[in-house]
Amino acid sequence: MSKRPDGRKVDEMRDIEAKVGVIEEADGSAMFRIGNTIAVAGVYGPKKVVPRHLEDPEKAILKCYYDMYSFSVPERKRPGPDRRSIELSMVIKNALAPAIFLKEYPKTQIEVFVSIIQADAGTRCAAISAAAMALADAGIAMKDMVAAVAAGHVNGEVVIDLNKEEEDIEGTSDIPMAYMPRTKKITLLQLDGKLPNDKLKAVMELGTKSCEAVYEVEKKALKEKYTPAESE
Ligand code: UDP
After folding, report:
1. What value does the mean pLDDT take over residues 153-157?
2. Residue from 1, 205, 178, 6 nearest 99 by CA
3. Residue with CA at minimum distance from ligand 1 atom 20
4. Angle 7-129-114 from CA coordinates, rounded to 5°
5. What residues flank ligand 1, with Cβ below 6 Å?
6. Alpha-carbon distance 84 to 63, whole Å?
7. Whole-angstrom Cα distance, residue 37 to residue 175?
8. What was the pLDDT predicted at 186?
9. Distance of CA 193 from the midpoint of ligand 1 (Å)
10. For residue 192, what is the DSSP state?
11. Are 107 and 58 within 8 A, CB to CB?
């Protein structure tokens, strides 16, 4: 029984695909696709801080840049940074920072660029998952991975991974979540819309369970790059 526009069950995410090592010139990179939302992340560093007076003698500075391409959405997005991309860059940075041993790299900066080449809702979460894999690919010391997906409340039901069509339904609430699966800590929790109090527990449970599933996809993609092929 499903009321979802694309026929999914309430606890069913869209089809997910992940690949590590997609940008030759980056120190680490990854692609994460969930349904029609595609994020590509490139990590550069740890490297020298420019300008130098901004360096922190205690730890690395983490810089994140989120960019949604003009052609990623049906109605052309004006190119370049805007309020939304500045906010999402900050949100993504805050979701990733707790997972990184920044103190291992004093006086340096780590740059994370995430490009959304196709958007059908859930781009901040796809960006976080792509960036976490790219950081691991860059060999940055991490205490945990970060996996992200948005839960929501649509037509009175708690659902996972809303697409744009569902996001646009009257009364929908969107709850993006990022989660560190080993330490079981939430590093991003936002709420756009209203959520009845008695639904919060179900949202948190479905969200964390789904982040665990995203984590399995991330691990598989990393292993695919780093496990040597069996010789014949
Ligand atoms: N969107 C759009 N044009 C814009 C910004 C967003 O079409 O300028 C669409 C896009 O599909 C995006 C969705 O609206 O994924 C939801 O955007 P939101 O700001 O809620 O963040 P997201 O769900 O992508 O993390």
Report:
1. 94
2. 178
3. 121
4. 110
5. 73, 77, 84, 119-124, 164, 167, 176
6. 16
7. 17
8. 98
9. 14
10. B
11. no
The rounded Å distance from CA 174 to ligand 1 centre is 11
Specify whether the CB–CB gap between 147 and 132 falls below 8 A.
yes
Whether the model clears a pTM of 0.85, i.e. scores above it, the answer is yes
Closest approach atom of ligand 1 to CA 75: 7
Closest by Cα among 76, 215, 44, 54 to 140: 44
Place of tokens 């691990």: 219
Are β-strands 108-118 and 173-180 bridged in parallel, bridged antiparallel, or unpaired? unpaired
Q: Cα separation of 89 and 112, whole Å? A: 9
Domains of the chain: 16-222 (3.30.230.70)
The pLDDT, as a whole number, for residue 229 is 75
Distance, in Å, from the CA atom of 29 to the CA atom of 101, rounded to the nearest integer, reads: 19
* Separation of alpha carbons 114 and 67, rounded Å: 6
Amino acid of residue 114: V
Task: Give pLDDT tens digits for 4-24.
Answer: 999 999 999 999 999 999 999
Ligand 1 pocket test: which of 14, 64, 67, 73 has the largest number of ligand atoms within 8 Å of its C-beta?
73
